[in-house]
Amino acid sequence: MNILHIDCSPRRESHSRRLSAAIVEKLLTMVPEAHVSRRDLGREPIPHTGAAYAAALATPASLSAAGRTADAVLPSEKLIGEVERADAIVIGTPMNNFTVPSVMKAWIDQILRVGRTIDSTPAGKVGMLEDRPVFVAIASGGVFMGDRANQPDFLTPYLTAAFGCIGLRSVHYLPLQATAFIDEARAAELRRSLVSAIQPEMAGLFAAQRITS
Ligand SMILES: Cc1cc2nc3c(=O)[nH]c(=O)nc-3n(C[C@H](O)[C@H](O)[C@H](O)COP(=O)(O)O)c2cc1C
Known about the structure:
Number of strands: 7
Order of helices and strands: EHEHHEHEEEHEHH
Structural class: alpha/beta
CATH superfamily: Flavodoxin domain
Low-confidence stretches: none
Distance between the termini: 5 Å
CATH architecture: 3-Layer(aba) Sandwich
Bound molecules: flavin mononucleotide
CATH class: Alpha Beta
């Protein structure tokens, strides 16, 4: 089993990092021999897409097999390969201004590619990747989900649409909210309860027998 573990917080110690680490730890208790690969977008941001990539995606040649080896799409190929090799993806991300941080958006811009991960059909975009579970640990200073939400949420609908259009439909959100108002003891309690709530979905991974250890 391969787990792709992605973090987006620029902080070395952070709520979303601790929560994503707790999810990975839980998966490892289920499959101790699983391999974890890391992509730390927070500490080592990938560059935003540039002119060469935009030009490559604007030409029909980019849709061909040869187009996949063009220099401009190599960073995209590398990042898509990391997703393709993963049986499960765990993402830790802060909410920044109601949505994902720009480091995550830069990654999404490399992963979502017509002709490679998205098939553009008259009926709309169809995902080309095989579905696999994605666990998204979200840390937010305030509250955006549930009865006490007092701000808009452009994060979870956006990720659901972005991942859905490449074929990843099994997205599970673990929101650790109000980080501006809680101490570490309360945060630890919330982490434990969020991870235990997601356990049935994790068990489902094994039941579906997609995951082999
Ligand atoms: C630039 C920036 C924008 C933020 N925007 C929001 C926001 O829209 N909603 C919110 O609840 N918290 C917001 N926050 C607070 C963070 O979500 C919160 O501090 C979170 O715990 C950060 O994640 P981390 O602990 O993993 O670093 C923002 C923080 C920063 C630095």
